[in-house]
Amino acid sequence: MKITFLATHLKINGGNRIILTYAHLLARKGHDVCIIAPTKGNFRRAVKNALNIKPNWMPMAAKVIWTAGYDENNIPDGDVVVATAWQTAGPVDSYAPQKGKKFYLSLHYESLYHGPAELVDPTYRLPLTKIVPSRWLQKIIKDKFQSDSHVIVIPVDLDLFKFLPEYRKPAPIRVMMLNHTYPWKGTKIGLEVFSRIKNDFPETQLVMFGVRNKKVDNPLCDEYHYNPKQEDLAKIYSSCHIFVCTSEYEALGMPPMEAMACKCANVTFDTGGSNEYAIDGNTSFVAKHNDADDLETKLRLAIRNEKLRNEISQRGYDFIRSNFSWDDATEKLADIFSNG
């Protein structure tokens, strides 16, 4: 198949990692795949296209075409054309049939955080075949917009994210958390919870990572990793006993899944999409939605009860590694493209 993905940009983030991984693996399976990415400046675009410039932060077998925007003249004819965000859904809907069957890979309920509802919500009503990463987002789109969608749970790269026991020491307990500037990611809540934890468990260490702030000016943070290389993340996850997800909502949530694949005990709010992998008392410690007191209770339990922490981290590890794979997800996506 000739498949075209429309991206809003190709900077490093979780959504782009998913889009680029799908494009890369589909190309590896023999499909003719290209990614349309806008960039400013006629000269800059010409140079990037002439030199075949691609994102340098992950492998990429698909082609990248740098364009001024999403005008139909910039889009190659093909079998499939895929919107990957609300900004690209309208253009895809407007294209002539020769651009391909029309799909909408929606990675979050974007009205929550990524755009004004009056602009975002209408995109879920467009006659595009929708693909989402969780039953939580599928239900929202069905209930609010009477639109059906296919669910493909985004997998973790199990070759990259794996437990490296040489980096895990018995003590002190190390708790890992994302540092982010978006309020809905909950960094402020996480730090407030950890400050109370630190009073009773003073030896516990906080390890943070992020791509937006080069440093963290907070005495609670014992160790900070700015924009770590992908191959280093598994070492950082493996060095920590517990991962805490403080997001308000996630359509899925890749960092907790990556941490679980590295045998961290996952402590998380019920973020909606987390229901695909976070089962309280089984694969994770799950707190009530956005309830900081309950998150503190779960984190205290994970720190205090070593036996339970180890059991849950093992079950979470097994669940992530046995239920989701990129090969299966890519095959399912290709089947939806073929039959959609």
TrEMBL record:
SUPFAM superfamilies noted in UniProt: UDP-Glycosyltransferase/glycogen phosphorylase
Leader peptide range in chain numbering: none
Name recorded for this polypeptide: Glycosyl transferase family 1 domain-containing protein
Record-linked Pfam families: Glycos_transf_1 (PF00534)
GO molecular function: glycosyltransferase activity
Domain of life according to the entry: Bacteria
Domain Glycosyl transferase family: 173-317
